[in-house]
Design goal:
The complex is a heterodimer of chains A (412) and B (404). In chain A, 39% of the residues lie in helices and 14% in strands. Chain A has 17 helices and 10 strands. The longest helix of chain A is centred in the middle third of the chain and has 16 residues. Chain A is globular. With 404 residues, chain B is α/β, with parallel strands linked by helices. In chain B, 44% of the residues lie in helices and 14% in strands. In chain B, helix 1 packs antiparallel against helix 2, helix 5 crosses helix 6 and helix 9 packs antiparallel against helix 13. The longest helix of chain B has 21 residues. Classes of the chains: A alpha/beta (412), B alpha/beta (404). Chains A and B meet through helix 9, helix 10, helix 11 and helix 14 of A and helix 8, helix 9, helix 10 and helix 13 of B.
């Protein structure tokens, strides 16, 4: 895949970036999809053995025939994209400034199996709120980086790019863009990364917002391990009990992909070589988002914005950049419990709880994890991919979450 | 891959025939492999190393003889027979010696009957392999349901217990009224299950993996026990990714395993540290360990590819995981093995079981030995040594003579 950049400046320069996918790569992807050798149907009538054959057949068919393989290229090139080298690695990012004065700068960080594609539909509502039912005072300048190893960011060639280093690079990116007062937002890996930005707590960081907050108290977190989960302790509230059971389900039934990527990411050669192998691997994140994505492909009933085209934009981007394995390496580099409290102390924290997230963070544990909790809200719809599936609702949450931090005005 | 099948009503002769276009397609797919970037570490800690897989792919596509697999299997008497709704493929080699003891040996994952082929000579024809006529076995090597040329079950609950029952039926159907059973890896779990079921005619079992440790804690009083526990902890903490994925989501990984031969090969190489480095040595340094040669490794992988059994073999872990979870939840111990048990610990095994653990798991232990070489794929890597162990383990059971 070739790219065009302005390479006239030094390492810390910010270079404009445009995607150009060569036609042979388009043809090669189509040919591979058509030549896919599929397994037989699973002998169960649900998703308990993994991604169902009917889902993959529907996805494959749409991907290989009706889907516009240049859609993701077109969508990304419609936005201002840049590269800049941070810590010896090229970081790709989208940067859209609001036309409103005093817009608050925000960095939005995606997760796995995501990419900047998850965030594309919040660009409008966040940067141009008056066109989306908001007011000028709600405007954000938006920065959406690709995590190292994901999308068009460079692939690390040495160990050490764990979430903490990504957090440092994200802070450096905002400073390099000239932002001296900004906020950060994330879900999935993005949530871990913004938590760690909060732990680092540089003065420029006004606050963070998470839709997958790390909230498990240490005495709860230690009860969870792959497959083996201790029974819930006595004395949990109803909300805590429900959260405990949801996390238990993740650990006992749904964490195989994460453990595989944490232990042996390199062994997954199939997600580099087989587009359908990659798609199946990416669709199998969690039971609720899988169900939503299956509806889009099998029943033609997408849930929210999680349409066939959106799902395939993300998979196609991962295919063309060959980042299945390089993105999986983030799990290998990580040493922290995904859902554990990370030790954010002084930085203001806002949390939105989406009802079909892996778990619903109880207010009690959220307050414990974030001593400076400034916003906590439970919304009425949305799964793990909140920004992607419910961009307007998600944008409304960000406006509300950060409103109190704007009193001095954002600046750049 | 098609096969020619005879007309006998119950037990049908079987012959492998691979259409040339399947070989061409496989070679084409290997040739168009799209590679990831190299791992960031100098060892296997991030998974199967790029250099290993690239050497494997190069040899597979260019120098490997695709006729080998077919020739090796067709050189042996193969059959299929339907048991419990699934067509079971098996190799059946009768010894020239009278009073040979019938033996059913079960392969594991990521194995197949290919693991066991080099034991056929020593076990059935011992006098040609430094043994005596009294050591002879009639040998039955079935393919597990969902593996190799056995059919893929379309119904549920094909766990090791059900496979064990099918094997007892297979031996009965072959006319064996007194026989023994042997296995490693998943084959050890099948053999262990047969020992607990104690079907009529089963005289004893020999296993070379202690599968019972997955069901609960073991004593850690001696240095040897602590060392084995440390190996078990290492497996659980850093070596069980493939195990967990196949136990929970076999279909998901199956898409890559069916569509990409190199992905299948890498997935199959990533079993355990000892065997990985031995296999990597065969491909990268040209230094195979024992019988784990490039050709033997690729025979097994090629069989998985041509039969399209990456997902269906993985599914056996899902089935066994459900049984294990139910057993742990119920807290009920399984019935003990009452027949005599033989056990051999190989030094490179994932967890090298101390005698004390084996005695605790099998109170009817009649034979225990520690071999001086060999790893997880004992039958494959050291066929003569494993054959010696099997002879020694079952010698005391022959007093009444085997019969068929």
């Amino acid at each position: 895949m070739s790219v065009t950049t302005d390479d006239s400046a030094g390492a810390s320069a910010i270079r404009p970036f445009t995607i150009e996918i060569p036609e042979p790569e388009i043809e090669a992807l189509r040919a591979r999809i058509a030549a896919t050798r599929l397994p037989d149907k699973e002998p169960v009538e649900d998703s308990s053995e993994g991604v169902q054959l009917a889902t993959m057949q529907a996805l494959m068919w749409y991907w290989g025939t009706e889907y516009d393989l240049r859609r993701v290229e077109t969508r990304l090139n419609a936005l201002p994209q840049f590269l800049t080298e941070i810590d010896d690695l090229d970081i790709h990012f989208i940067h859209v400034k609001s036309r409103h004065e005093n817009a608050l700068p925000v960095i939005l960080i995606h997760g796995w199996p995501g990419s900047v594609v998850e965030m594309l539909n919040v660009v409008g509502p966040l940067t141009d709120p008056t066109a989306y039912g908001g007011s000028a005072e709600d405007a954000f300048d938006v920065v959406i980086p690709s995590i190292p190893g994901y999308g068009f960011s460079g692939k690390p060639t040495t160990s050490g790019w764990g979430p903490d280093r990504v957090a440092s690079a994200s802070l450096e990116l905002m400073k390099r863009l000239g932002y001296t007062r900004f906020v950060a937002q994330g879900g999935d890996w993005g949530a871990v990364i913004v938590d760690l930005m909060g732990v680092q707590a540089p003065p420029e960081l006004l606050g963070i917002h998470s839709n997958m907050p790390g909230i498990l108290p240490p005495e709860i977190a230690q009860r969870f391990g792959p497959v083996s989960v201790a029974p819930a302790p006595a004395g949990l509230s109803a909300d805590e009990q429900r959260c405990y059971e949801d996390v238990s389900d993740v650990y006992t039934k749904g964490i195989g992909y994460a453990i595989q990527m944490a232990l042996r990411p390199q062994t997954l050669y199939g997600i580099a070589d087989s587009p359908v192998g990659l798609a199946a691997w990416m669709v199998d994140h969690d039971a609720r988002s899988y169900e939503d994505i299956t509806h889009a492909f099998v029943d033609g009933r997408p849930v929210g914005n999680l349409t066939r085209d959106e799902v395939l934009d993300n998979i196609t981007l991962t295919w063309f950049t060959n980042t299945g394995i390089s993105s999986a390496r983030l799990y290998h580099e990580n040493t922290l419990g995904f859902f554990d409290a990370k030790g954010v102390s002084s930085v203001p924290v806002a949390v939105s709880v989406f009802p079909r997230e892996l778990y619903q963070a109880p207010r009690s544990w959220t307050e414990q994890a974030y001593p400076n909790l400034i916003y906590y809200n439970v919304v009425d719809r949305g799964d793990h991919f909140a920004a992607w599936q419910e961009p307007e609702l998600f944008s409304a949450e960000l406006r509300a979450a950060f409103r109190s931090l704007r009193t001095n005005g954002g600046s750049s | 891959m098609s096969s020619t099948v005879g007309t006998a009503p119950e037990i049908k002769p079987f012959h492998v025939e691979t259409p040339e276009e399947q070989i061409d397609d496989l070679r084409r797919r290997i040739g168009t492999m799209r590679w990831p970037t190299k791992e960031l570490v100098p060892d296997r800690s991030q998974g199967v190393q790029l250099a290993t897989v690239q050497e494997l792919a190069a040899y597979w596509a260019s120098d490997y003889d695709f006729g080998r697999l077919e020739a090796r299997l067709n050189a042996l008497p193969q059959f299929t027979t339907e048991i419990d709704g699934v067509e079971i493929h098996f190799i059946h080699v009768r010894s020239p010696h009278e009073n040979a003891l019938p033996l059913i040996m079960t392969h594991g994952w990521p194995g197949s009957v290919m693991e066991l082929l080099e034991t056929v000579g020593p076990l059935t024809d011992p006098t040609a392999h430094s043994g005596e006529a009294e050591d002879a076995f009639h040998l039955v090597l079935p393919s597990m349901p969902g593996y190799g040329f056995s059919n893929e079950p379309t119904d549920l609950e094909w766990n090791v217990g059900r496979v064990g029952q099918a094997w007892a039926e297979l031996m009965r159907r072959l006319g064996y009224t007194r026989y023994v059973a042997q296995g490693g890896d998943v084959g050890a779990a099948v053999t262990d299950a047969m020992g607990r079921q104690a079907p009529e005619g089963l005289l004893g079992i020999h296993v070379n993996v202690l599968v019972t440790v997955l069901g609960g804690p073991q004593p850690t009083e001696s240095d040897e026990e602590r060392a084995a526990q440390a190996q078990l902890d290492t497996f659980r903490e850093s070596g069980s990714g493939y195990f967990l994925e196949m136990t929970t989501r076999p279909q998901t990984i199956g898409y890559a395993l069916l569509d990409s031969p190199v992905a299948l090969a890498a997935w199959m190489l990533d079993h355990d540290t000892d065997s990985y480095y031995k296999i990597a040595g065969a491909f990268v340094d040209g230094k195979p360990t024992g019988n784990l040669t490039r050709d033997n490794i690729l025979d097994n992988i090629t069989l998985y590819w041509l039969t399209g059994t990456g997902a269906s073999a993985a599914r056996s872990y899902w089935e066994d995981g459900r049984v294990l979870a139910a057993a742990l939840a119920s807290g009920q111990a399984p019935p003990e093995v009452s027949v005599p048990v033989g056990f051999t610990t190989f030094p490179g095994e994932v967890w090298a079981a101390p005698r004390s653990w084996v005695e605790q798991s099998y109170p009817s232990l009649t034979y225990f030995n520690k071999a001086d070489r060999g790893g997880h794929f004992a039958a494959w890597e050291e066929p003569e040594l494993l054959s010696d162990e099997i002879r020694d383990a079952f010698r005391s059971l022959r007093t009444n003579g085997g019969a068929s």
